[in-house]
Amino acid sequence: MSRRILIGDRRVDTIDPADRGLAYGDGLFETMRAHRGAVPWWDAHWARLVRGAGRLRLPVPDPARTKQEAEALLDGRDAVLKLLLTRGAGGRGYAPPESAEPMLVLSVHDLPPASPAEGLSLCWCDIRLAVQPALAGLKHSNRLEQVLARMEWDDPAIHEGLVRSSEGDVVCATAANLFILRDGSWHTPPLDRCGVAGVCRAWAMEALGAVETRLDVTDVETAEAIFLCNAVRGILPVARLGARCWAPHPQISALQARLAVEVPAFAAAFTMERS
Amino acid sequence: MSRRILIGDRRVDTIDPADRGLAYGDGLFETMRAHRGAVPWWDAHWARLVRGAGRLRLPVPDPARTKQEAEALLDGRDAVLKLLLTRGAGGRGYAPPESAEPMLVLSVHDLPPASPAEGLSLCWCDIRLAVQPALAGLKHSNRLEQVLARMEWDDPAIHEGLVRSSEGDVVCATAANLFILRDGSWHTPPLDRCGVAGVCRAWAMEALGAVETRLDVTDVETAEAIFLCNAVRGILPVARLGARCWAPHPQISALQARLAVEVPAFAAAFTMERS
């Protein structure tokens, strides 16, 4: 795994122990799939980072410089690229110091193992996501809820957990967005109360003509088909949720095939799943 | 400012860029007032850290070793001591790796300036605290709400902001707990939905025989007296909240005097405020 750390324009070797990302999770991140050293969804990830930075009033690093550093680090590989942008070093106290210069950490990680060809097995998580419109949709670095949700199961046969909000709406999986098929149309939960607005979710919404619909547990369990998605693993068909099982659905296979054609980064994941 | 970083039992020089505190705010902290190199409320801070670690399933560092490191670092000074405990380094993904060894950062900071003798001026913050019983009461490192709340004002004449929950209850200030006097008895908001259960709050509750009461904006604005408190600055009388003003209240002065006697670390703060 390789990594670069930038503070403003300067390359540095170490994390400042006074970084506010470490102190308060005062930052944002993006996790992207790279193919042959390039990130096909770079623009969408960058746009989300810029939106998040606006909401948190974080200065945005230079886009061209960041992309150049990322591509140098990827060095032609198929890999996962993570960007972490924090507010930078500060003293004690929540007020961001005037002088804080944002820190950017770029890191390259191995691709995750291929998803099970037969589809994912899911559980329901007990923890509810708190409703916070000021942070909803952002991929910010306050992720204790996701850590707690992910700690709820250790059965390796369970691949992901679905999480509801404190209002009872189904929101997402711990690290993926959710789509369900009902009466011939696709639905995904709105993310104006909590949850992360995924880059692959946006692609899938457009590809499917999906609509945002508040969903409860029954909506999900009685759906004709469901899948998860994220920008690293693509489209992930779901085979089981507790006692409920779903057969492979042709619309999901077709969506995977379409993604593999439009974004070849995901062709390998798709082929591996089918092999 | 001096600092020590421990991973398990080993002293290290730098923060691992893969630390989960940095990635996800996956950690807890304590901020304490030290007097002549000792922390009078050490046991209460440590107990809160242990409670939080239990909720987050974080291993707790050795208490004797930690105290010894803290005292060596304080070196006899009057100062603020901060402990930050994170889950340690991990790969991508929310599941804590089996092998993660917690990181502990101890740092010593200057005491804050004395509080204004005439009392604090407060505002109401717009952002609401999300309701999350799984994290309520803990001093965890997911503090974006507090950062956003603190960014709402930049008028130096405003010292603190009061924050409500998404349910409309008044919870706390951005970095202090709240007490109000009504009909001769003291009340402080319960912290079972959100907020941090402060160490000074626990002391003040016992000293005053205060009770936990859900409070709304009117309860606060019509109170006979109000104060804030935290474990670094002690008891902080409030003089103004928006258009509402309060004269100094003898019960608050008496509480400050009692704190200065019981915990001499706060005598200086108190004397300075009165000088």
UniProtKB/TrEMBL annotation, chains A, B:
Catalytic activity: 4-amino-4-deoxychorismate = 4-aminobenzoate + pyruvate + H(+)
Assembly with partners or alone: Homodimer.
InterPro entries assigned to the protein according to its UniProt record, in alphabetical order: Aminodeoxychorismate_lyase_IV, Aminotrans_IV, Aminotransferase-like, BCAT-like_C, BCAT-like_N, Class-IV_PLP-Dep_Aminotrnsfr
GO molecular function, one term: pyridoxal phosphate binding
Protein family according to the UniProt entry: Belongs to the class-IV pyridoxal-phosphate-dependent aminotransferase family.
Cofactor: pyridoxal 5'-phosphate
Originating organism: Marilutibacter alkalisoli
Pathway(s) served: Cofactor biosynthesis; tetrahydrofolate biosynthesis; 4-aminobenzoate from chorismate: step 2/2
This enzyme's EC code(s): 4.1.3.38
UniProt-listed NCBIfam families: pabC_Proteo
Chain segments annotated as transmembrane: none
GO cellular component: cytosol
Biological processes, Gene Ontology terms: 4-aminobenzoate biosynthetic process; folic acid biosynthetic process
Keywords: Folate biosynthesis, Lyase, Pyridoxal phosphate
Protein's name in the database: Aminodeoxychorismate lyase
